[in-house]
Design brief:
Elements: E1 2-6, E2 19-29, E3 34-48, H1 54-58, E4 75-83, E5 87-91, E6 94-98, E7 102-107, E8 112-120, E9 125-128, E10 131-143, E11 151-159
Parallel strand pairs: 3-4, 3-5
Antiparallel strand pairs: 1-2, 2-3, 4-7, 5-6, 6-9, 7-8, 8-10, 9-10, 10-11
């Protein structure tokens, strides 16, 4: 199928706020009972405000509870995703933009394997256990193995004492430079 334009009306799995172009093909592979989703997806921009689970991400995902013969294992993925303007994130991770040039989604629908590098540009605010930090840069690299932990590099400008984008208040001001 092909989708070009803005909005999500009638597109399964498309989140409101995402805009992009899809040029994907679903190909039935004869004799194996498998199909392959392959092609390119260009994301023009998006907004992510849903909560994120650090544990699932760092430990390679949560057990999906799929049986060995689940049909999702028969849906093979080969999709390249490019990002024009990245995604604006505003959730429990913080408030920042995520940008990338291209990443690849392989594996199966039951166990997708993502390979690529995602960057958080200067000035993004991450929420971590010690409170919000403003970053000089941050990089998350996924290696294409759904069970492998990501490589994460965060270079903070400094721990923030000020109230950034609604973070911190008189009762919970966040860390000081001596923390």
């Amino acid at each position: 199928f092909q989708y070009r334009g803005r909005g999500c009306r009638g597109i399964p799995g498309c989140q409101p706020g995402a805009r992009g172009k899809r040029d994907l093909a679903v190909v039935q592979q004869a004799g194996h009972g498998r199909c392959r989703v392959a092609g390119d997806l260009e994301l023009e921009g998006g907004y992510w405000d849903q909560p994120f689970s650090y544990g699932e991400f760092m430990l390679g995902g949560e057990e999906q509870g799929l049986s060995g013969d689940d049909p999702l294992y028969d849906v093979l993925l080969d999709v390249n995703v490019t990002g024009r303007n990245g995604i604006r994130v505003r959730n429990n991770l913080g408030e920042f933009d995520v940008v990338w040039q291209q990443f690849h989604v392989g594996g199966s629908a039951a166990m997708p394997a993502i390979e690529g590098e995602f960057r958080i540009p200067y000035g993004g605010v991450l929420t971590v256990g010690t409170g919000p930090i403003r970053v000089q840069r941050a990089v998350v690299e996924l290696v294409g193995d759904p069970l492998a932990p990501p490589r994460v590099e965060i270079v903070p400008i400094a721990y923030t004492e000020s109230k950034l984008a609604g973070f911190g208040n008189d009762e919970n001001p966040g860390p000081s430079l001596t923390d």
